[in-house]
Amino acid sequence: MVRLLSELKNGESGKVVKVNGEGAVRRRLFDMGITPGALAQMRKKAPLGDPIEITVRGYELTLRKVEAACVEVEFL
């Protein structure tokens, strides 16, 4: 089942299938290690849902919800 990274709940994991977005946003996500095949785990969300914290490639990363919505993941 493929959904958006921003839809993961705390503790859920997913494998990155596709990175959408254009220009600087897409490049920034790639530079942070969010590439197809990478595993991402939702660590926590801010009280209002933005930003979110994920673990990818062994490090913690904070993203805006809009950025996370550009990443399609397959739930594990």
Describe it.
- The protein is α+β, with helices and mostly antiparallel strands and 76 residues long.
- Helix content is 17%, strand content 42%.
- It contains two helices and six strands.
- The protein has helices at 23-31, 65-68, and strands spanning 2-4, 13-19, 39-45, 52-56, 59-63, 71-75.
- The chain has a six-stranded antiparallel beta sheet.
- The longest helix is centred in the middle third of the chain and has 9 residues, at 23-31.
- The relative contact order is 0.34.
- The model has no long low-confidence stretch (mean pLDDT 93).
Draw up the topology in text.
Elements: E1 2-4, E2 13-19, H1 23-31, E3 39-45, E4 52-56, E5 59-63, H2 65-68, E6 71-75
Antiparallel strand pairs: 1-6, 2-3, 2-6, 3-4, 4-5
